[in-house]
Write a structure and sequence with these properties.
Strand content: 15-25%
Low-confidence stretches: 86-92, 232-237
Helix content: 40-55%
Distance between the termini: 12 Å
Mean pLDDT: 79
Order of helices and strands: HEEEEEEEHHHHHHHH
């Protein structure tokens, strides 16, 4: 099927079905048919993280009450336009392909989970019922904090390596901040050498972060939820 659109798979970033089946009857033969649209996201050829997308239509005829294989009909023309590539500032978790998608998912999870724990007092004062969601997470607060710190740093490193330093910078920052709020005590207890010296040296800064734990928690929760929806619209091939 790819040969219909391009010469090689590398020229396409993704293909997604963008309509339901639409049935009709030919005027001349009176035979039924059905058609469906698919949108193709073409590869970013100039490195600006913007890709062309174009919608194509396929049609299937019914012969002897059996639907025949799809045939390419042509370009619909709508929807069409330009879109940020999956590795762009909203869609990327700091990498490409499976690794980028996994890091994106982990970034969402740690922001939401750590945000709920760190901002629990403020959240409970607004929505009392949220305590039922937070309670099961509470015993794992330190682990979630360390995970948030690690995922945030890993995502940033992958962004730098892929030359997209600002890709996902906001959820990366909130994840690191949440990690310091929830996991700093555990890290200090396990740290040795220069890492321990650095944490002792910056103890005052860590305390300042902890005094804002409620606001950081709520911010992380909001960022995690927004990033889930804004960054989750990905093409698959």
């Amino acid at each position: 099927m790819l040969k219909i659109f391009v010469d090689s798979k590398q020229e396409i970033t993704g293909i997604v079905v963008t309509s339901d089946w639409h049935k009709g009857i030919y005027r001349d033969s009176k035979l039924p048919y059905r058609k469906i649209n698919c949108t193709v996201l073409y590869a970013d050829t100039d490195g600006d993280d913007v890709s062309r997308y174009l919608t194509h239509v396929f049609i299937s005829d019914s012969i002897n009450e059996e639907w025949q294989p799809l045939k390419y009909k042509g370009i619909v023309g709508h929807p069409e336009g330009w879109a940020k590539s999956a590795k762009g500032s909203l869609g990327g978790g700091g990498g490409k392909g499976i690794i980028g998608s996994l890091v994106w998912l982990l970034l969402v999870i740690v922001n939401i989970a750590a945000g709920l724990i760190a901002g629990q007092d403020l959240l409970k004062s607004k929505v009392a019922a949220i305590e039922k969601v937070i309670a099961p997470l509470q015993p794992f607060s330190a682990l979630i904090g360390v995970s948030a710190l690690g995922v945030g740093l890993l995502s940033f490193i992958l962004s730098v390596l892929s030359l997209h330093i600002l890709a996902g910078i906001i959820p990366q920052l909130t994840a690191v901040a949440l990690g310091l709020v929830l996991g700093s005590e555990v890290i200090k207890g396990k740290a040795t050498g220069k890492l321990k010296e650095a944490m002792v040296k910056h103890e005052a800064h860590l305390q300042q972060v902890n005094t804002r734990s409620q606001l950081i928690g709520v911010a992380g929760l909001v960022v995690g939820v927004l990033y889930l929806f804004l960054g989750g619209a990905r093409y698959v091939i």
